[in-house]
């Protein structure tokens, strides 16, 4: 394969659509006869609906219907086999309220203004209202689940000279993609077409078909552009079912846009975690034991395991280890995966603990990590496929200037400002989902690739074009990419940073099959350019069919036209490795995060100045897009470290800062200077190109590196995120 | 409680036949304004925001709704040449105004230099906040703004990019500023 | 949002005629439209006054400045007379909101900006300001960003504006037109403490309209600055802010005006602290004493005790900036 287009920093092929407002997002759909739906959320978190009076709302201009439990029609619970959903109870299924904002009714009107006005006039009365449980302190409701164990960590801990025993807390965080969750649902009496904000058109189709009680074939899910999701849009939420049910009852297209406030209530969040980490080491820094015990909160009905110990068993070597996870119930909407679930909060805890251990050892924190580099995955007892964590740390140190670090707290100053330097390691899984693709080579010289995955902003459109261009030699500008539709061949969920790794075998396989068909076409029939030749003597290169022995050959499209054929096509398939029982290799990405913060105690101002990040995530298909992913993760990490927390009112259970003025995320002015380096070692155990994925790893380790830098600047060790001003005033 | 009982208890008794509409029927208001160079005369619900009118009535869906409360900047358009949050004004307030949306700035085939710079510098990921970022950036070109990256970042802080493409957005804007 | 009638007024007289009942004036829209969407404001008539000829910024005979009620925040912030004569006002305006909002928001609207208290902004929560007698969900609830000065047991909502903090330090005067004629109110008398009637925030009577704000001529040798502290670097309301206008000669403070934001139920001025600085050397020690005076009556809530210390640092830093090199 001549490497031309892979590894090139090409601009996105969908860029001109995005910058001109022409990219069509879910809520941009407008249909004839469309109506507007506005859901009403409960204003209690624990109780039941006593009565719902919609008479006033029904009488208002433009109001078509007020749906509630009595008239919404049948909505079923999806079976686990259907796919993933984090809130399994269908909306309006009973009168019990288990969290604030749980939907109690849906108003549909001719216009958005009419529907919102009517929604405020539906009177809901509640009974049996009890104080909600939204307590911040977490204690496991059930026996913790043992994730991993080796050796005797308790005994090793007791016997070791240097110890750390600390508890770390990460708060509930809300994803807050700028695109609001939304559905535009249409129903023609048989067929549902659901325009959704989803990171997984196929999961969405499969789950919705069970919720609606119709065959999968009767549900089509479309998302051409997604205004990101960060995990919040992985699986269906109650509004999806409500919109579809309203379309079913009314036989009119229904547009339902979740409000920003409702996005804090009903479409998931990263759960609060409380993690006890116990480390012990010999005086030379050798890790003698590691225990990582985490608890996260979950909704009242569904299980949710954040799995904070995701990266714990393999990141460092130690003979004695225990990883557990546990849950506790809260009157809060069900949590869901948020960018880097498990590992991101987990690494905040464990990497912070390493920083504390380094301090206790009076050892450089980079050196401590290098000291405990394992030669194989000690959790699974298998070799690593491709691990370059040491190089991440050493190269990062070099680029950052780590050797200039003066270790004493508050000892580094520049322009009258105290600097703090911190480091953290990070890691994220690499695996593949099932994926199928169809590639067509067309008689006009272009190609088309179709796959039912979606581009959530990571660059999937562009990567698919690059893969086809790479395989066929057709310029990537001439590759049309079709995705975001459940009628296309099943593609992967945009989750777990796995899309790129997953699509490679499917797309390359489909392209090869299509090229093979083109070659066969070029040899068959008397008019064919290579009539009578053995197909084995020919190859497809640079968009042409050429003889292996040499010669210019013919453009493939000429061969197609000659045969009066509009296209040749091929199908390809890749199989999942995610969740494999007995993997041969431990396949993960690694990275090192180096952070400089600036601290001005006289005005209690903390800012993140610069971040150097070195990432070992296999081969980069498109470094321009990959770099953006990591930079964006760093920015989100600044928010996670310093600002973000969804706060619940202890009396009402309401998420009280449910807007973008009170739930503070990083702005332009908060973005540090970010220097991203990719090591670019292909990991061919995962796929033939050796690409892993970069959507999440950049967020892992940022909060711990910032917390370490804050300690270095201020002497205050913050173990409960976010690192708000008030926690630093004693410094 | 059965589904049937729920209906009778909760809904039936509270819907008397002679129910009066609670509020006066929405009055309408005429507004004549120019959108992307086209003079338009509309009759709008006074409650309709400029944002919803552009999107739902005029089909100019390039302008996005991200928070509906002036807290994200996704709805940024130009009114009489200045950037504003279209979610925080009623369409009725724009009688006689000249409104420019992302669609009026440039097309995929004929991009405005700022749009082209966003493509070149990868000044986005998901693209949802992008029209707002670009409308803000285009307006910034004729505003008092210092030369540094920090000046641009401060001036652009009313546009949240949750994907975090800030570094690239600032690079895109600076490239246009230095070329211009 | 409830249905309402929409009218336009292009003169003050027309606006006053149209006013009455629960009608509301709208200019920039950044407060009213926001609160109408939340169901916090429910006027049945909205009067668009944005086209009244009150957008000018002009020098007055005494060399002071008159800022029209409809002058946009961005225009005021960048107006040469403001930049040169009243840097504290320019800085305060530019520290507020975002470039887009500053293009919309007007001087008069900003003067009447409502609190950002989440209880006030959510009709499902108890709020004496929004619904007198309903209680206060912020006391014992989410109050990290709320007031520690000027509170009552009915209301702890903080005043959110930056502009008004600067105008308070500049001793501005609010010009008002109403059914009974025109009147002028010094900004220090314009805002009311919540007390038992937190729903009343200013002395403005129903049907009255702010037409302009005037600021006295800059005192010779005066320097001024605005310092705003918040969690993130931009586009956020103040946790604490300080506007300082001072004349320092030979290291001695001749005259100083201090107003603080983010910590009070109104733009917070403390005459005692100013008096304590007059005639004193411009030193950190004196600044700390003044800060101590301003915060001595602070009544922290469950989440905002840190504001006492933060506000002190804010004021000391602002005083240091303004008096440096003098």
How would you describe this protein?
The complex is a heterotrimer of chains A (731), B (180) and C (326). With 731 residues, chain A is α+β, with helices and mostly antiparallel strands. Helices cover 24% and strands 25% of the residues of chain A. Chain A has 3 domains: 151 residues, Aldehyde Oxidoreductase, domain 4; 189 residues, Aldehyde Oxidoreductase, domain 4; 293 residues, Aldehyde Oxidoreductase, domain 4 (2-Layer Sandwich). The longest helix of chain A has 25 residues. With 180 residues, chain B is of the alpha+beta class. The N terminus of chain B is likely disordered. Among the domains of chain C are: 46 residues, Uridine Diphospho-n-acetylenolpyruvylglucosamine Reductase, domain 2 (2-Layer Sandwich); 101 residues, CO dehydrogenase flavoprotein, C-terminal domain (Enolase-like, domain 1), CATH 3.30.390.50. Chain C is built from 13 helices and 12 strands. A 5-stranded antiparallel sheet of chain C has the order 4-5-8-6-7. In chain C, α5 runs antiparallel to α9 and α12 runs antiparallel to α13. Chain C is globular, with a radius of gyration of 19 Å. The chains are: A alpha+beta (731), B alpha+beta (180), C alpha+beta (326). At the A-B interface, α1, β2, α2, α3 and α15 of A face α1, α2, α3, α4 and α5 of B.
Largest β-sheet summary of chain C: 5 strands, antiparallel
Helix content of chain C: 25-40%
Order of helices and strands of chain B: HEEHEEEHHHHH
Q: Mean of the pLDDT scores of chain B?
A: 89
Coarse shape of chain B: elongated
Relative helix content of chain B: 25-40%
Give a quick rundown of the structure:
The complex is a heterotrimer of chains A (731), B (180) and C (326). Chain B has 180 residues and is an alpha+beta fold.
